[in-house]
Specification:
Strand content: over 45%
Number of strands: 11
Shape: globular
Structural class: mainly beta
Radius of gyration: 14 Å
Distance between the termini: 24 Å
Number of helices: 2
């Protein structure tokens, strides 16, 4: 589900039980809201963390999540954008290529899921 209004893009994703999900690479810091369910998330250090909704997560630039859904899950994010369409907003906030991120981000170790 997508909404763009007053410079804010809100995206809610539903992820079914027993699915593996790989997120985009995030190009900006933003709040995320784990609304429903239980998932395991792979962290940068190779460990796996189990997350249970509800919880608020601050997503940092460079974050990319790999997660397995133990239950049906819902996750929502809010981004500040200049875009007027979903397609434009996605280009503004996501990438498939870490080389598009600032050097200060790619030169340091960060967790995929910050709390």
């Amino acid at each position: 589900e997508h909404t763009i209004k007053d410079g804010l893009y809100t995206r809610k994703v539903s992820m079914p039980k027993n699915h593996l999900v790989i997120s985009y690479i995030h190009k900006q810091n933003h709040p995320s809201f784990f609304l429903k369910g239980k998932m395991s998330v792979l962290l940068d250090d190779g460990t796996v963390k189990v997350l249970t909704a509800p919880m608020v997560v601050q997503t940092e630039v460079g974050t990319q999540r790999v997660a397995f859904m133990h239950e049906d899950c819902e996750w929502a994010c809010v981004y500040k954008v200049k875009s007027k369409t979903v397609k434009e907003a996605e280009k503004e906030i996501y990438t498939y290529d870490y080389r598009e991120l600032p050097k200060k981000v790619t030169s340091k170790k960060i967790d995929l899921c910050q709390e």
